[in-house]
Design goal:
It contains 15 helices and 5 strands. With 264 residues, it is an alpha/beta fold. The protein has 2 domains: 3-120, Response regulator (Rossmann fold, 3-Layer(aba) Sandwich), CATH 3.40.50.2300; 132-249, Arc Repressor Mutant, subunit A (Orthogonal Bundle). α11 runs antiparallel to α15. The model is unreliable at 256-260 (pLDDT under 50).
Length: 264
């Protein structure tokens, strides 16, 4: 259910990309290179897939390097042809974590790229951190809540999407040591906020808009109430790790990893 940004040419021969995304139940949006920074700053995008070969006139992608530098928390995968040495060199310099060569990966390249970015997304990082403490079913609820971040934070609608009523889902969550449905959705937004506030390409106001808060004041109140910090303190104090600490302290889940949590 995550929102995936796709940067590819409109005439791309790789029209199976939307099919791969939709088969996984994900929402997606097509973004032009010149609009990429604005889209990443204003929309709650979980990951970015770039099919560089199909983007016309973009073989030395300074825009891609800028996105990687401005939004380091963003999970990013780039598909490129080994024959395009200029693009290959440029992408290598940009600090992209997942570089997939079309000739090596073959027909399954887009599914492979999607798996890579979903694992490196904010949701994937949080799920890895809490998975030792949760059984399979409650862990799937946490992942669903994290992937729901780009949708309206409607607890009843979220519970229905999982096949439960809101009270029943809340009981199942509490039994696993997790907060009730509405609070879990709030934590999902704030965990993303923790990662995004540390990005130099975002501001507290842009993050509040991305997460659907009515205004910056409402966002700051939620962050102070649940995490006990202002946005600037989160940004400089550890980003996602500091929010995850607060989440674990508010639940019955122990923190079992010592290293700072890294996203993308």
């Amino acid at each position: 259910m995550a929102l995936i940004a796709l940067c590819a040419g409109a005439s791309s021969p790789n029209d199976e990309i939307p099919g791969v995304l939709e088969a996984g139940g994900h929402d997606w949006c097509l973004v032009a290179p010149e609009d990429l920074a604005g889209e990443l700053r204003e929309r709650p995008v979980s990951a970015l897939l770039v099919d560089l070969e199909s983007v016309p006139g973009r073989r030395a992608p300074g825009w891609l390097e800028g996105a990687a530098r401005s939004f380091p928390s963003l999970a990013l995968a780039v598909i490129v042809s080994v024959r395009d040495l200029g693009a290959l060199h440029a992408v290598g310099r940009s600090g992209v974590d997942h570089l997939l060569l079309r000739e090596e990966c073959g027909d399954g390249i887009f599914a492979r790229a999607l798996r890579a970015v979903l694992a490196d997304s904010v949701a994937g990082s949080v799920v890895r951190a809490v998975s030792p403490q949760l059984a399979r079913a409650p862990l799937s609820y946490v992942r669903a809540a994290l992937d729901w971040v780009h949708r309206t934070p409607d607890a009843d609608g979220f519970a229905r999407a999982l096949g439960w009523s809101r009270p029943h889902l809340s009981r199942r969550l509490r039994a696993a040591g997790l907060p009730p449905t509405g609070h879990l959705l709030t934590w999902s937004r704030l965990l993303h906020a923790g990662a995004w506030l540390a990005d130099p390409g975002r501001s507290g106001e842009s993050v509040s808009r991305q997460l659907g808060y009515a205004n910056g004041s409402t966002f700051r109140r939620a962050l102070r109430h649940f995490v006990g910090l202002r946005p600037s303190a989160v940004a400089t104090g550890g980003g996602l790790s500091v929010v995850l600490d607060a989440f674990l302290e508010a639940t019955a889940l122990p923190r079992r990893f010592a290293e700072p949590l890294r996203v993308a």
